[in-house]
Amino acid sequence: MRHFIEELEDLRKQLLEMAGLVELAVHDSVLSLMERDQERAQRVLVNEARINQMEIRIDELATRLLALNQPMARDLRFLTAALKINNDLERMGDLAVNIVERALSLMAQPPVKPLIDIPRMAQLAESMVRNSLDSFVKRDAELARSVLLSDDAVDDLRDTISKELVGFMERDPSTVSRALDLILVSRNLERIADHATNIAEDVLFVVQGVDVRHHAEEHD
Amino acid sequence: MRHFIEELEDLRKQLLEMAGLVELAVHDSVLSLMERDQERAQRVLVNEARINQMEIRIDELATRLLALNQPMARDLRFLTAALKINNDLERMGDLAVNIVERALSLMAQPPVKPLIDIPRMAQLAESMVRNSLDSFVKRDAELARSVLLSDDAVDDLRDTISKELVGFMERDPSTVSRALDLILVSRNLERIADHATNIAEDVLFVVQGVDVRHHAEEHD
Questions:
Q1: Cα separation of A204 and A39, whole Å?
Q2: Residue A211 has pLDDT above 80, yes or no
Q3: Based on C-alpha coordinates, what's the Rg of chain A?
């Protein structure tokens, strides 16, 4: 069984490496928007290929470990959670690319307004990504629960941002297309936070064997 | 092994039943928008609880089959694909709820314009959901590939819809908030189509053992 344990450890490391890449992609995507930094935006686009390759590699490893061993209980939950977390991470990478596409379009135009809530939302989403993965690695249910709690704050920020930008569009039609891009950036951040929430739910399932999906609201 | 085969069959049936619920939810969400039908909208909200329960049940069944048997090759691919497809279906259910929320808000206000491209996009997305699940049940690689081909048409419709609605917002600021709701509906439909594409990719993996993720563009 020694070999199996080493392979599980390898899987955990690969997921962490992928999470690091995804975290960086999210961070860089918003920073490229804030600082109108085309080079940084390009870096996100280039890194996406690596994230996609890692997804396939991790998927293969987790599936192989399911096939060649007969993992029970905790290890089985870990492996099926790894498959899901892997999927969530890859989608977050896609969402960072979506943000970069908006950022590149916005860079070519004058700013609508100084951005305050979007970087705040990005910071929150990034910390949710980091904490969800940390909770997975450390099997820390408390930390996973804290991620679930942040989700409401993200939704509030999304609403604040939409409301403000709709106001801009209504008062000055010349801002419509740029303000819409910013609203779409905030929606992408919201979805990144949603994926972090999914991961935290999977962690609670692995650690406690408790399925909190669709009940997170009541529990917290 | 007879028992295992029966349980696999049961899993397949449950996934199909869930897919039927999700298809109906997508269909009803757009119809409630088109016909300003509040009752139909409510039905989608009520059905979401059933979809969520099915997700948990299917997840448990697939995980148990992975645990209690030692499925190899094709069955293993089927079971890990079932976990992913289940997840995609549940998210589609969430997206139908998002559409209903926009529909309920829009019902209370005068229409911006007659809707033409949104129902077209919905029809395309629905057929992608149906075909991706049919391809899974029939192990039909040809049908799965046809789903991948539809994705570009969905993206084109999304762009057409956005462009037209941005025009409305720029010409008449009183339409901003309603037009934004319609743009968000089209984004939700786009994501539903994306999930159908994910399912079709999983089917190709199950049937052919070929991983087409991140290469769909080149192949088609």
A1: 38
A2: no
A3: 19
State the Cα–Cα distance between residues A17 and A66, nearest whole angstrom: 21
State the average pLDDT over residues B114-121: 94
Query: Over 50: is that where the pLDDT of B8 sits?
Result: yes
* Tokens 């199950």, residue located: B206
Q: Name A70's Cβ contacts closer than 8 Å, sequence gap at least 6.
A: B67, B70
| Mutate which: B105, B180, B212, vs A, most A CBs within 10 A | B180
Q: How do residues A135-174 score in pLDDT, each as one tens digit? A: 998 899 999 999 999 999 999 999 999 999 999 999 999 9
Domain range list for chain A: 2-219
Taking the Cβ of residue A155 and every Cβ of chain B, the question of whether any pair is shorter than 8 Å is answered with: no
Q: Which of A167, A175, A188 is nearest to A121 (CA)?
A: A188
Cα-Cα end-to-end distance for chain A: 39
Q: How close are the terminal C-alpha atoms of chain B, in Å?
A: 39
B45 touches chain A (CB under 8 A): no
Taking contacts as CB-CB distances below 8 angstroms, the residues of chain A near B56 are 211, 213-214
- The average confidence (pLDDT) of chain B is 91
User: Could you tell me the pLDDT band of residue B39, with boundaries at 50, 70 and 90?
Assistant: very high
For residues A112 and A153, what is the distance between their CA atoms, to the nearest angstrom? 24
Q: In chain B, which among 83-112 make CB contacts under 8 A with chain A?
A: 83-84, 87
Q: Architecture of B2-219 per CATH? A: Up-down Bundle (1.20)
A117 phi, psi to nearest 5 deg:
-75, -30
**Token pair of A141 as six digits:** 């249910």
Kindly indicate the confidence band of residue B117, based on its pLDDT and cuts at 50, 70 and 90: very high
ipTM of this complex prediction, to 2 decimal places: 0.84
